[in-house]
Amino acid sequence: AAPAAAPAAAPAPAPEGSLLRSPVAWYVAVFMGLASLMFYVLMSWLPEIMQDAGFAPATAGMMVSTMMIVGIPLGFLVPVLAARLRDQRAVVAGVVLTMVAGIGGLIVAPAAGWAWTIVLGIGTGSAFPLAYTLLSLRSPSPSVAARLSGMAQTGGYLLAGFGPLAMGVLHGATGGWHVPLTLLLVLVAPELVFGMLAARPGFVRPAAARPGRLDGRLVEPKSLPAAEPARTR
Fold it and tell me: Which residues form the Major facilitator superfamily (MFS) profile domain (predicted)?
């Protein structure tokens, strides 16, 4: 009897390219980093800003709590709204403009601190979950979503970690909050730009992997035939 044919080998998995060469991945990562920076700067320094504006320490502490409480329901609503839209640019614009109003208000009218606290609660409470939602919406597959999340959160938190420190250094160097808050307001511009780019319809497209490599390991090119076993006499 003829020998049974050997079962066909399973096809090798397609190599996944690097996200570091994907513009959309960088748009999402930078937007997440700036949104995180805004949140951590305000959470860290808003009590001090409000105290310097004339509010009692207890009141300034309540303002930070209020900012965070205002953002809680938005953490549920904004992702649902964004996921229902094919294009999230209008949501990004609304969120970022809210940050402009809140930070600008702290600069020109700090005495109205309660109003700006609520506005900033809306802005930070929306931007942070929106950034996480874009991670999912811009990913064509769960594996890409996981890799994009790792890239965006690593870079984002590194960027955000410098925010509170830089604000403190600027405050100490200038003796007030006008310069630090103005810089924070300037950073809203790139947040808007990268947020609008990240919110456009489309997906992250990982760059093609280098030939001969698969997940960081060398593999034999398919075009080369398998070596024949040595013949014995």
Answer: 24-233
Q: What is the pLDDT of residues 110-124, one digit of tens each?
A: 999 999 999 999 999
Cα gap 105→39, rounded to integer Å: 16
- In angstroms, rounded to a whole number, what is the distance separating the alpha carbons of residues 52 and 47? 9
Which of 196, 203, 188 shows the shortest CA–CA distance to 89?
A: 196
Q: How far apart are CA 12 and CA 10, in angstroms?
A: 6
217 pairs with which residues across the strands? 214
CB 191, CB 38: distance < 8 Å: yes
Label residues 47-60 b or e (16+ Cβ within 10 Å = b): bebbbebebeeeeb
For domain 19-200, the question of CATH label 1.10.10.10 is answered with: no
Count Cβ atoms within 10 A of the Cβ of residue 187 and give its class: 0-12 exposed, 13-18 middle, 19 or more buried.
Answer: middle
Cβ-in-10-Å burial (0-12, 13-18, 19+) of 122 comes to buried
pTM over 0.85: no
Q: Where are the extended beta strands (E) located within the chain?
A: 213-214, 217-218
What is the pLDDT confidence band of residue 161, given thresholds at 50, 70 and 90?
Answer: confident
